[in-house]
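Hello again, I could really use a second opinion on something today. Take your time with it, there's no hurry, and the full record follows here:

___
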Amino acid sequence: MAEMINQPTILERATRELDMVIGKERLVQESDIANLNYINACAKEAFRLHPVAHFNMPHVAMQDTTLGGYFIPEGSWALLSRVGLGRNPKTWQNPLKFNPERHLNNGEIVLTKHDPRFLVFSTGRRGCMGSFLGSCLTTMLLARMIQCFSWSPPRNAISVDLTEAVDDLSLANPLMAFGRPRLASHLYPTTS
């Protein structure tokens, strides 16, 4: 959300997609996710640029092998840097720029599809068992936040601060943004 708030044209495009595919008379549902290619591209780009953890789960080489010109002896532990893969300038053009369009030329966007250029939920036998659930929940939350509210930086701010924390990949400061409801009031569930 922070990246999208800082780039209003991206946020507007995602909002237009939701309005065209879902409309303003109902809330986005899980069954709609496959039809929200731009929203999926935004989620995929967020995972690429801002992974949930620095490294994937360790893997152990089962036999001597050579990978990328490097000899890896049997029994060696291999850790892949999610940040290093997702922000690699040899792989990504303008790697530090949030650009969902970079994912759109490959057809349908599937967050759980293996992509060796970055790891969303790890890979192989040690891949995350909850990858489908995690990608579904992430996309649903993003879609609902965009569908239900018009977002802007807080008053007296030009943009959202994207500085990362020193000890993890979360924002150093809490995300502060102004959300204004954009749907009919009966679509906002409340508790009595």
